[in-house]
Design goal:
heterodimer; A: alpha/beta; Rossmann fold; Alpha-Beta Plaits; 4-stranded antiparallel β-sheet; 12 helices; globular; B: 250 residues; mainly alpha; 79% helix; 0% strand
């Protein structure tokens, strides 16, 4: 595996606000990485830093082994699709697809045409007059058909309906299998993309709180379900991520279990169920937001 | 299965020419619409003039009035707006296509020079037709008005310098906007305004108006227009340095 993005001690301040706060991580070549986090967590700023669109306050960024800032040899291998993309005055979708091949050496015009048909995008209408979803589909098509070795999708599908989103996921996976490349995807719809992601980075308040492979992350928590007494006896002093209860029943999310522990749980008549990526991220994000008050959560539990 | 290849950089000239193509990808705003407007203004002006001539009792006096027309001044202001849009709106779009700020600005500047050249050649050709047809048959002077120069060569130069001036002043103002948004633009106009007032005051107190008049008289139309290159160059260079540190904010 080759590292394609390497970031160390990266900080970006806007006035007093640290949008990205002393962050270090790396992303491997030919993976699909989810960059997740709440609104205003710093996802877009981070992607703008990685693509040379913003200037770092301090720290190092290496993309393809070099700084991306004003570096044509790095930037021309990057496609950055963002939700709020503006287009030149009076442009129609056809102008976007006409000019894209001049900038993306791997551009596949046939693929673009298939996607245009899939998304039913009107090519000849002024972009200003397109619906929110149609506007998003322009970005999605450019991001896929450009086949840039490093592609960023920042909330690419605002306003796209469920069918169109599924088309996006399907085409992304198909094309990724045929033409492996590195894709960084930022989104709120975590469960929808959970199966696509191989690596997950969660940013909160400018800091990275999760940086794990999707498999590690999924194995990092389990929900234990059963009668409250049995559940409490089983979890003992373990850190509780979340607790739900109805009557005498409890469902408690705790850190991942070893196979022996799993067997023990089964012997105590407890049921173990996987926790969805979305639930997991919500719980871990809440934990950091409570500022290390896990004890308080446990006390409540 | 084919792994996507990482490409060696395209040559700097190729990258800059790609920006020119990007600006002209939709020819409607930069090429078609200005000629449509100019055509309508031209036809309208000629029609009014022909009407005046047909009803005027003092034809000589009426003909005198046909020598001045400011109707094609719009095209210069129009190009200022084209430059503003090219810099402010196309910039964030080009960045998404993996373009560097340097290539974007140089490509935009080349686009402005090429458009200036094309438009000044076209206007000069129209002025030649105007001369050949004796003012479109009625002695009208749309493109040969004295303030565009006396010979075709002078007119070509005056048109070219005027286009460059409006393109690059527009580009500089747009760069201020991209870099510092509305606050920056307001400050920019305040500074320019104060500078102009200061200059006028200075000339006034130094009783330099005769000298200023003499300067323009000696320089003549072409000479004065050549001095505009100083402002054009300052605007062009300022725009470059402003855009080198610009960021696309929503």
């Amino acid at each position: 595996m080759t590292t394609i993005i390497e970031v160390s001690n990266l900080t970006k301040n806007f006035g007093k606000l640290a949008a990205v706060d002393n962050v270090s991580f790396s992303i491997e070549e030919n993976t699909i990485c989810g960059l997740l986090g709440r609104n205003g967590a710093g996802k877009t700023t981070l992607m703008q830093l990685l693509t040379g669109q913003q200037f770092a306050t301090s720290g190092d960024i290496n993309v393809f082994g070099q700084s991306p800032v004003e570096n044509a040899s790095v930037l021309q291998n990057i496609s950055f699709i963002k939700e709020s993309q503006r287009y030149p005055e009076d442009f129609r979708a056809k102008h976007v697809f006409k000019s894209a091949p001049w900038f993306f050496a791997n551009w596949d015009a046939d693929f673009a045409e298939r996607l245009i048909a899939d998304f039913r995008l009107p090519l000849d209408r002024k972009i200003k007059k397109l619906s929110r979803g149609q506007l998003s589909s322009i970005g999605v098509i450019v991001g896929l058909a450009s086949r840039a070795p490093l592609t960023f999708f920042d909330e690419p599908y605002l306003g796209l309906d469920a069918v169109a989103r599924q088309i996006f996921y399907d085409r992304l996976l198909e094309d990724y299998a045929e033409h492996p490349r590195t894709i960084v995807l930022s989104t709120h719809l975590i469960d929808e993309v959970a199966n696509l992601l191989e690596h997950v980075i969660v940013i909160d308040d400018g800091q990275i709180i999760i940086d794990e492979t999707a498999d590690e992350l999924r194995g990092s928590a389990t929900a234990v379900v059963g009668p409250s007494g049995a559940v409490d006896a089983f979890i003992g002093n373990r850190e509780v991520l979340h607790r739900d209860g109805i009557g005498g029943l409890a469902s408690v999310t705790i850190a991942g279990l070893t196979s022996t522990e799993r067997a023990d749980a089964a012997a105590s008549g407890l049921e173990l169920s996987p926790v969805s990526l979305q639930q997991l991220i919500i719980r871990r994000t809440n934990l950091t937001e409570l500022g290390g008050n896990e004890k308080e959560i446990e006390a409540r539990a | 299965m084919t792994t996507t290849t990482v490409h060696a950089p395209a040559t700097p000239m190729r990258r800059i020419l790609n920006i020119v193509r990007l600006h002209l990808a939709n020819p409607w705003t930069t090429i078609i619409l200005p000629w449509v407007i100019l055509g309508i203004i031209f036809a309208g002006t000629l029609a009014v003039w022909a009407l005046i001539l047909s009803v005027a009792s003092d034809t000589a006096d009426a003909r005198d009035g046909l020598q001045y027309s400011g109707s094609n001044f719009f095209i210069f202001v129009y190009m200022l707006v084209v430059a503003v849009q090219a810099i402010s709106i196309t910039f964030p779009f080009a960045l998404g296509f993996g373009v560097t700020r340097r290539d974007f600005y140089l490509g935009s500047a080349l686009t402005f020079v090429l458009l200036s050249a094309a438009y000044s050649v076209a206007l000069t050709i129209l002025s030649l037709i105007e001369e050949a047809t004796n003012g479109w048959g009625i002695g009208a002077q749309m493109f040969t008005t004295f303030y565009f120069g006396e010979t075709p060569a002078e007119r070509l130069l005056v048109f070219f310098l005027a286009f460059l001036f409006f393109f690059f002043v527009g580009a500089a103002a747009a760069s201020v906007w991209v870099r510092w948004k509305a606050t920056g633009l307001v400050m920019f106009f305040i500074i320019i305004g104060l500078g102009l007032i200061g200059l006028v005051a200075l000339i006034f107190f130094a009783q330099g108006w005769p000298a200023v008049g003499e300067f323009f008289a000696t320089a003549g139309l072409v000479g004065s227009m050549l001095w505009s290159l100083v402002i054009t160059a300052i605007a062009g260079v300022t725009g470059f340095f402003l855009m080198r540190r610009a960021t696309p904010t929503a």
